[in-house]
Structure formats: C-alpha cells, structure tokens
Amino acid sequence: MLFSGATFLYAFLPVVLLLYAVAPGTKCKNYVLLSASLVFYFFGEPVYVLLLIFSSISDWLHSIYIEKHRGERKARIALISSIVINLGMLGFFKYTDFLIGTVNAVFGVSIPKTGVPLPIGISFFTFQTMSYTIDVYRGRAHAQKDLGTMATFVCLFPQLIAGPIVRYVDVAAELEGRRHTLEGVADGIRRFAFGLGKKVLIANVMYEVIVFFRESGDKSVLFYWLYAVAYTLQIYFDFSGYSDMAIGLGAIFGFKFPENFNYPYISKSITEFWRRWHMTLGGWFRDYVYIPLGGNRTTKLKWLRNIAVVWILTGAWHGAEWNFVLWGVMFGVLLIIEKLWLGKLLEKLPAFLSHIYVMFTVVLSFVIFNAAGLKGVVSDLGGLFGAGGIPLVSSDAVYYLRSYAVPIAVAVIGATPLPRYLYSRLHEAPRVVLEPLAVGALLVLSTAFLIDGSFNPFLYFRF
User: Fold this and answer.
1) Do 128 and 142 have their domain in common?
2) For the chain, what is the domain count?
3) Catalytic residue among 62, 318, 355, 427
4) Which DSSP state fits 259?
C-alpha cells in the first residue's frame, strides 16, 4: 500500500484517524497505531508480517537483558546476538541471491538461487531496531518494558517502509505520552499534502520520461541526458516527497520525526550534498559505523579506511547489485578527494562552478544507481557521451524534451529553496487564506492524477 494510493488516502487513513481519535490515552492510541501498522504491512507483505513481529520481540527481549546486565560481558554478548539476528535477516533476504549470482559468475557454477522476495522496508526497520539495542547498550536509551510500545516503535506505519530512519531515542518520550494539538495536526496535513504533491505531480511525471526512454528504439545522446536529468529529479521528489508524507503523518499522530532532506541539489560540494541527502541514513552510518571505527580521530590511513568502509556499506545498503556498490565507492572516493585537497579548491571557486561540479557528478551517479547491473552502467554512461556511434539528437528526444520541458523546469525550481522563500515573503493575512487553498488544491490535483494516471511507482521499495 502506497501513501500516494487511493486505497490509503480514502479508505485506510480515514479509518485509522477515526479509531485513533476515539481511543483513550496514549497506550490505547499506541495499540491502534500498532494494529493499523500490521494491517498496512500485511497489504504488501502478508507472510512477512511475522518477520516484523519477530524483529519486535527479539529486540525487546535483547534490550531488557542488555539493560539488566549493562557493564557486564553478558550485555555485550546479548548486543552481538541482537546485531547478528538483524544483520542475518537483512543478509538472507537481501543478499543471498546476489552472493549466489556472484559465485556462479566468478566460478562458472550453477548454484540455484533461493528466489526469496525482498521484504518491503527491511533495510529501514532492521537499522532502526539495531540502533535501539546499541543505544540501550551504550546507556543512551532505557529498555522499553512494554512489548506493545516497543512493537509500535518498530512497526509504526508512517515511517516503516521508507523512512526517515527514526531512532528510538527520537520518539521515546512521545511513545509514553504525547500531546495532540490542532496546530500540530494542521502542520502534519500541510506537510503530507506537499509531500503527496511532490510525489504524484512531479516524481510520477518524471517517471514517464524514464519509461519512454527505456522503451524507445530511437536513442541519442540528447535522450540519454534527458533521461539522466529526469531520473535525478524523480528520485529526489519521489523519496523526499515520501519522507515529507511520513513526517506529516507523524505530526498528525503526535510524533516529531527527523528531517531527511534539505535541498541537496543546491550543494557546492559532494560533502555538503551528503549532509543534505537522506540525512537519517548518513547520521546512522556516522554514529554506528564511522565513529566506532575511529572516525577522523585516528591515523590518516585508518581514517581513509573508515570512509571507505562506510561508503561500501552505504552502496550495498541501497541494493544487492554491483552497480550500487560502485555507486557507493564512487562517492567514497570523491569524499576522500574533497577532504584531502579538492574541498579547499571548491571553497575558492565561484559558487556556480562548484554547483556545476556537484550536479554533473550527482547526475552521473544516479545513472549508475539506476542501471541494470554493471553492463547497464557501461551502456548508460556510454550513451551519455556518444559511445557506439549513437547520434547526438533523435526525433524521440526532441519530442519528449518539448513535451516535458515545463514539468522539468518546475521540478528544477521546486528542488531549490526559491518556492519556500517566496512563500515566506507573503504577509500573514494572505498566508492564512492561501495555505488551506493550496493544501486543498494539492489533494484534489493529486487525486485527479492518481485516478487518471498509470504511473505510481515508489523507488525505495527496492531497498
């Protein structure tokens, strides 16, 4: 079930909101959210609901034991057990067939693959539960004694399948008791509506260009670049729109989820880009991998090793294919280069040159990211630069460029702080009138597009 689907918007969500509103007290409201979350997950993964329940019980038991024996060897053993179970689930479902395929290719054997489908959101909820037990072990969080409350945290449907990655310490107090205000609900509705608009009105339209490109038999250099730009815009509006919807839903239910994007396409270095893109994932790897390895407070060689480890893992986290690993390695190398010398040069360059460097790199990186394996990487990157003698321009490229020039321009502007800045310049009186009208218009337009259109994918279901 997608947040941007009619079933969710006009059947599931209204029922959940009604039940939540009439439920007395925080504990009852938590049980409403838990039940709704399990139903929500069941729609997409009926069998794997059991996996979600198992993950909740496992980390609940481990955390209680860890807190009871904190400072003892038993606590460390329990922490290792919890991490092994979480990584074991993630490894089996996400990477087993990838490893089998790699072994078959390297050694020329034919080991049969498992064919086990990837549980939706497993990359997100395993990271959340791991951060919880680690924080309990470190003494940064108290073990949650109530299984229902713990399961509510793990299964909470607004952020279950696509983040942002919410740590237990972010919402611990709100799980125990939270205030609901009209202002908070209004903020949540507004945030959800704008996220829905980003997803349906921009990301889905950009996806049309991608589909037409893949199906076209009239490729050209121009068409490859049009595809690359469309995909760069689509993945941003798709993922950030979904994050906005999650944050908005969290606010409606009384939770404050962390921000996940901060206009990454205005960055002037790759280092800055990764401070603005998927911020909860970057923060997770920083706090639970990079710093424990020593961060930058070690020898230069180990520091470079730490960066390399984080970015290989970041690439692999996104997908069980070598193009994702290559994507992570690419950013790791660029970040190392920036930290060693390029960063100082970028600070001296005019801002527009630094920005061109970042966007050129990011566009190429997302071509790698979306390729069909390493062969697809070679083919798609080659197409951008005319490899194989493909023409510079084709009739399909010109047609789709003309057809989608306005949506692309809107998307480019929307990826900057300009719309927010212009809105902030409005006086209070116009805002009071325009804001509900804008929210209503976004909901109506998004619904119309959903009813009329056939493109409504969500990229991060792959991860």
Assistant:
1) yes
2) 2
3) 318
4) P
Same-domain pairing of 143 and 122: yes
Flag whether 308 is in a domain: yes
Task: For residue 438, name the pLDDT band (cuts at 50, 70, 90).
Answer: confident
Please tell me the pTM assigned to this model.
0.93
Dihedral sign for Cα 334, 237, 182, 419, please. Answer: positive
**Rounded Cα gap, residues 49 and 40, in angstroms:** 10
- Domain range for 104 is 6-178
Kindly state whether residues 311 and 370 are assigned to the same domain.
yes
Cα angle 446, 447, 448; round to 5: 90
Same domain flag for 433 and 312: yes
In a domain, 1, yes or no: no
193 and 328 housed in the same domain: yes
How far apart, in whole angstroms, are the C-alpha atoms of residue 260 and residue 274?
11
The two tokens of residue 308 are: 């390399």
C-alpha R_g of the chain:
23
- Catalytic residue flag (residue 318): yes
Task: Return the pLDDT at 456.
Answer: 58
| Cα(402)–Cα(443) distance, integer angstroms | 28
CA nearest neighbour of 85 among 115, 112, 102, 63: 63
Do residues 326 and 305 share a domain?
Answer: yes
State the burial class of residue 31 (Cβ atoms within 10 Å of its Cβ: 0-12, 13-18, 19+): middle
Cα–Cα nearest to 391, from 176, 190, 217: 217
pLDDT band at 5 (very low <50, low <70, confident <90, very high): confident
Cα separation, 40 vs 246, whole angstroms: 14
Q: Assign residue 263 a region: left if phi > 0, alpha if psi is -120 to 50, beta otherwise?
A: left
Phi, psi dihedral angles at 65 (to 5 degrees): -65, -40
- Asked if 383 and 243 sit in the same domain, the reply is yes
Residue 79 placed within a domain: yes
Q: Is the pLDDT of residue 311 over 90?
A: yes
C-alpha 212/C-alpha 392 separation (Å) is 18
Give the side-chain half-sphere CA count within 13 A for 391. 9
